[in-house]
Amino acid sequence: MSDVARAFVTVALLGVSTSAIGQVVARPGPAAAAASSATSGVDVDDAVNDIIVTAQRRTERLQDVPLAVTAVSGRQLADAQINDTTSLTRLVPSLTINQNAGANFVVFRIRGVGTQLGTPGVEPAVSIVLDGIPFARAAQGVTDLVDIERIEVLRGPQGTLFGKNSTAGVISITTARPAKEFGGVAEFTIAEKNEYRARGTVTGALSDTLRARITGYYNNIGGYLNNVPTGEQFNGSESGGVRGKLEWDATSQLNLLLTGSYSKSVSNCCQYVYTAVTNPLLATLISPIVPSVGNRDTSASADVYDDSQSKVFSLEANYALDGATITSLTGYQDFDTQNNNDADGIYAPRAIFLPGAAPSFYDLQSGQVALKQFTQEVRIASTGQRALNYVAGLYYLNLDLDRTFQRRFAGCVAGGANGIQIDGTVCAVPTFRSGSIASNFRTKNYAAFGQLDWKVIGGLTLLGGARIQRETVSYSAVRPGTGLVTGDIPLYTAATPANSISDTATTGKLGARYEFSRRAQAYLTWSTGYKGSGFNVEIATNFAANAPLRPETVKAWELGFKGSTASGLLTGAVALFNSRYRDLQVQASRLDPNSGIFFLVPTNAGTATVRGVEVEATLRPLRGLSLTGGVTYLHSNLDADGLSCPLPRQINVVVNASGNRPGNTCYRLTATGAALIDIRDGNLPNAPEWRGTAALRYETAITGTDFGAFAQLNVQTQSTISFSLEQDKSLSQRAYSLVDGSIGFTGPNDHFRITLFVKNLFDKSYFSTVGRAALFTSTASPNSFTGYPNKDSDRYFGGTIAYRW
Question: Are 756 and 130 in contact, with CB atoms under 8 Å apart?
Answer without folding.
Answer: no
